[in-house]
Amino acid sequence: MLLGVNIDHVATLRNARGEEEPSVYDAAKICVKVGANGITTHLREDRRHIKDADVYALKKDLKCRLNLEMAATDEMQKIALDLLPHACCIVPEKRQEVTTEGGLDVFSQQKRMIEFVKPLVNAGIEVSLFIDAEEKQVEASYKTGAQFIELHTGSYSQAFGTDKEEIEFQKLKNATIFAQKLGLNVNAGHGLNYINVHRMHEIPNLHELNIGHSIISRAIFTGLECAVKDMMNLVYKN
Ligand code: PXP
Asked: What is the per-residue pLDDT across 154-188, written as a single tens digit (0 to 9) for each?
């Protein structure tokens, strides 16, 4: 399993002062230096954390995979086609939300999503749709031509350690197996941390985990290098 480190919250902290520290670019360099497979950033419509200049600087100089999370808007499609990141993860976006809430409803906007995904795939970008672990969303994602889905692990993470954990875990596992039968590659992320991530190894052939908040939170106490290494030890263990 691969690890993509989401560094949005480094930008959140930087933007709190509106100045240059801490540097998103330097944070990404540390993640890559210690062995993370990729860097994930969410360029939100309101630019509340990652800014356009960040993604261009990361794409230009960093020798690693850049995964650009973005909403399915014309503006973002234009940026992606200009930037050409290695991967794009299409997420739902609401202005008032604190973080991405729920997966993308690909099923209800099948035609729009097919049109949105096609130019990105044709440009050589790996496209992933961030969806809930439901068969109808997996099937609809497959029909868009995207090569990947990313399963939303938020419900599993919240249920972890409660009597709902197993139900949420099985949903992820079943959706993964179903997606893989269709030929999709499967990533996962949201709310994963040092305590709950280990069960991702029970899901066959997950490709990549995208993890942000827990790593950046730990980094405040241990330093980023150590926080990334600790997560790598859990993610790469098999
Ligand atoms: N994957 C996607 C698609 C996301 O939107 C997010 C949150 O930005 C993450 C992964 C990482 O979630 P967390 O910060 O909770 O680890």
From this structure: 999 999 999 999 999 999 999 999 999 999 999 99
- Ligand 1, from 2, 5, 6: best to mutate by most atoms within 8 Å of Cβ? 6
CB 68 within 8 A of CB 30: no
Burial environment of residue 120 by CB neighbours within 10 A (0 to 12, 13 to 18, 19 or more): buried
33, containing H or E segment: helix 24-34
- Bridge partners, residue 128, by sequence: 89, 148
Residue range 2-236, CATH number? 3.20.20.70
CA dist., res. 205 & res. 192, Å (int) = 17
Q: For the residues of 115-144, what is the DSSP string, one character each?
A: HHHHHHHHTT-EEEEEE-S-HHHHHHHHHH
- pTM flag (> 0.85): yes
User: What value does the CA radius of gyration of the chain take, rounded to a whole number of Å?
Assistant: 17
Atom index in ligand 1 nearest the CA of residue 193 equals 16
Domain boundaries, the chain: 2-236
Residue 132 · residue 152 · CB < 8 Å: yes
Q: Exposed/middle/buried for 80, CB within 10 Å: 0-12, 13-18, 19+?
A: buried
Q: Are 70 and 88 in contact (CB under 8 A)?
A: yes
